[in-house]
Amino acid sequence: MDQPSILVVDDEGDFLETLLNRLKKRNILAVGCTSGEAALKLLREAAFAVVVLDIKMPGGMDGIQALREVKKIRPETEVILLTGHASLETSMEGMQHGAYDYLLKPIKLEDLLEKLAQALERRTDSAQRALSDQIRGLLKKK
Amino acid sequence: MESPFYSRLQGKIILLTLLVTFTPLLLLGVIMYRQFAGMYTAKVLEQVRYRAESQAESLDLFLNERTAILGAIADTHSFESITEEDNLALKLEVMNRWAGAFVDLGVIDQNGRQLAYVGPYGLKGRDYSDQEWFDEVIGKGVHISDVYLGFRKLPHFIIAVRRNERQKSWILRATIDPDVFGRIVQAAHTGTTGDAYLVNSKSVFQTRPRFGGNTLDTAPVSTPVFGKNTTTFEQALGDGRKVLYGGTWLKVKKDWLLVITRDAETEMADLFASRNVQIGIIVAGIIAIVLTTVFTTRMMIRQLSQAETRMREMNAQLVQSDKLASLGKMAAGVAHEINNPLAVILQKTGWLADLLEEEDLQKSPNLQEFRSSVNKIEEHVERARKVVHNMLGYVRRMEPRLEDVDVNQTVNQTIDILDNFARANNIDIQTGLAANVPIIGGDQAKLQQVVLNLVTNAIDAIGKDGTVTVRTKADDAEISIVVADTGPGIPENIQKKVFDPFFTTKGGGKGNGLGLWVSYSIIEKMGGTLSLRSEEGHGAEFTIRLPIVAPETK
User: Fold this and answer.
1) CA triplet B237, B243, B244: central angle to 5 degrees?
2) Under DSSP, is residue B219 helix (H, G, I), strand (E, B) or coil?
């Protein structure tokens, strides 16, 4: 558990912080940042199994742009898109650019965990698959 | 149906058209008739003049001839031979053989006594010295008398010539047969109403007229109006009849006037007939013009009015779709702005819930209150989330797919879904589906959503007991689906708002006010229109019009 498998990118600091806290409380290591640029920087330094990416971020790079960069740097990374903007086109565009799935804000933690578990399940890395099992365990407990 | 503006416009156009058409038509009719009537009258008067002239010539000739014969007899006989009555009778016979119309013949000496006489009246020995004609013939040598009664007490006139023989004068006098003379005069009349007669300068009949009078009566003509030459004119009688007059003074007997009359009505019969035909044609023309004008104007106004109504509808739809488009954008923006804080609230609440599970808080006496509050917050965030998601979900789901759509089948399926519900409220759903509705390319699920929505609304509007009618129809360009109900109708001031989002008249949280807005947007995205027609108290009628888009070929 040294290397966090999950990166959460969202410009809404309160949201990001709370989400990370809640994941941490469930023993899921996750790293957060508030901009696409910062996320790319982190990705260049280390690989993440899953990136949770807010589609609509004001200023700088938007979610779709960030997604394309992520896929350029780490093609194997699974990306789950978050959107407060229920636009099918954008979500579809995201899927076309290789996103694993998308979630509509406001998200329930359980829904995110479910998607995370599904995404991690696809990984070849056994530690990551173990994390998937761990998450599923959490969901079952509820 | 038509606005007062169009009624007025129609009235004005009709009036103006009729005025502009009738004025020249009637003017032309009147002018032409007057011209024609003038020419015709002139022509008839000309005939009358010719007749009078030629007949007067005949009469002059007649009198001349008889005067000449009388003169020739007088000049070629001595007083002695002419006073022999056998000889005189022979002369009368010769005169009648060669000229005719002599009744008797007499010789009168210069003292006025008739010395010899042959004829039917036995006038021998009569003294004519005090008679007017006697003075005239002694003075002038030749005289044709006016008609008078004389000794025989019968209307007649005489021709007399004087012969001077050895310091003495004698007179040869003949009476002209008034019947023969009268027949010659009468020969000038024409038709059943025409007349011809002679009058002297004192307007006394010298021959018997055909109508109204006898010889020596006073004639109803004033002789001074007849000029030196032949005169013609038209005169109205007291009874309204019009008479054409023609008159010529004779040349041989200068104070005799030949008068020819003709009834204007009879003479003008052809003119009046042609006038009646003309009036008939004009009346028929006027009727045709009125009918055509009214018909075309009405048609024009109707088309104009329809065009305006269509334009107004299109404008309204344009405004509506503009409004909806901007509302949609705004809604999407608002949703985003709300969703982000909702996301934070939800996470924070989740975090609170997580923390509540920690041991030291488990002991708090308010733990249940905390938990309950957290749950309530989550519950209400969920509620808000649903509202926004519903709204955006509609927006998202508005992207139509292109598949084969059987409109009639869609309608039938929708009605099947709602039939039980409708029947429970004693509402009858009737269908009138046209058989020629083609399969089109579109999104069946979305169309069904719209129809479902409209029929549900119709059922809701009726409440209980009524009928919902769903009809389909197709022409070359479009398919229409009409959903009509027998509900209370939609007031006019509300009609404009029914397609606005969040507008609802359904109380008690039954409707979210998005149904018609979404329906409108869906149909608009399919390239069609959704419109409403309703009158308060007479139900409502929603019409979907979809362009016929060919289904995708597979």
Assistant:
1) 145
2) coil
List, in order, residues 6 or more apart from B264 with CB less than 8 Å away: B44, B234, B241, B242, B243, B244
Q: Which of B332, B348, B381 sits opposite A18 (nearest CB)?
A: B348
Contact A89, A128 (CB under 8 A): no
Q: One-letter amino acid identity for B268?
A: M
Residues in chain B: 554
Q: Which of A105, A55, A90, A16 is nearest to B338 (CA)?
A: A105
> Which residue out of B338, B344, B359 would a mutagenesis test of the A interface target, given it has the greatest number of A Cβ atoms within 10 Å?
B344
A124: distance to nearest CA of chain B, Å?
31
* DSSP E strand boundaries for chain A: 6-9, 30-33, 50-54, 78-83, 101-104
Query: From the list A21, A22, A86, which residue is nearest B392 (CB)?
Result: A86
Angstrom distances, CA of residue B496 to CA of B348, B458, B501: 43, 17, 12
Query: Which amino acid would we find at residue B148?
Result: Y
Listing DSSP states for B5-21 in one string gives HHHHHHHHHHHHHHHHH
The answer to whether the beta carbons of residues B273 and B263 sit under 8 Å apart is: no
Asked if A12 is an interface residue toward chain B (Cβ–Cβ < 8 A), one would say yes
The answer, for A105 touching chain B at a CB cutoff of 8 Å, is: yes
Strand arrangement of the beta sheet that strand B478-485 belongs to: B427-433, B466-474, B478-485, B540-547, B529-534
Q: Do A12 and B345 touch (CB under 8 A)?
A: no
Backbone angle region of A59, left / alpha / beta, with phi > 0 → left and psi within -120 to 50 → alpha: left
User: Could you list the pLDDT tens digit for every one of the 554 residues in chain B?
Assistant: 457 888 898 899 999 999 998 898 889 889 988 998 888 888 888 989 999 999 999 999 999 999 999 999 999 999 999 999 999 999 999 999 998 899 999 999 999 999 999 999 888 889 999 988 999 999 999 999 999 998 888 899 999 999 998 888 999 999 999 999 999 999 888 778 889 999 999 999 999 999 888 999 999 888 999 988 899 998 888 888 888 899 999 999 999 999 999 888 887 788 888 888 988 998 998 899 999 999 999 999 999 988 988 888 888 777 776 766 676 677 777 777 888 889 899 999 999 888 888 878 788 888 888 889 999 998 888 888 777 766 665 554 444 556 778 889 888 888 887 887 888 888 999 989 998 888 888 777 788 888 888 998 898 888 888 999 999 999 888 999 999 999 888 888 888 788 877 777 766 555 667 778 888 888 888 888 999 988 888 889 999 999 887 765 54
> Is the Cβ–Cβ distance between B134 and B108 less than 8 Å?
yes
Chain A environment of B346 (Cβ under 8 Å): 106-108
Distances in Å between the Cα of B334 and the Cα atoms of A11, B290, B337, B385, B389 are 18, 64, 5, 12, 12
Q: What is the C-alpha to C-alpha distance for residues B378 and B348, in angstroms, rounded to an integer? A: 10
Separation between Cα atoms, residue B534 and residue B541, nearest integer Å: 6
Distance of alpha carbon B249 from alpha carbon B258, whole angstroms? 6
Q: Is B436 helix (H, G, I), strand (E, B) or coil?
A: coil
**Partner residue opposite A12 with nearest CB, options B343, B351, B396:** B343
Nearest to B172 by CA among B95, B60, B255, B59: B95
Question: In this complex, do A86 and B389 lie within 8 Å of one another by their Cβ atoms?
Answer: yes
Distance, in Å, from the CA atom of B194 to the CA atom of B260, rounded to the nearest integer, reads: 7
Rounded-to-integer distance, Cα B172 and Cα B83, Å: 10
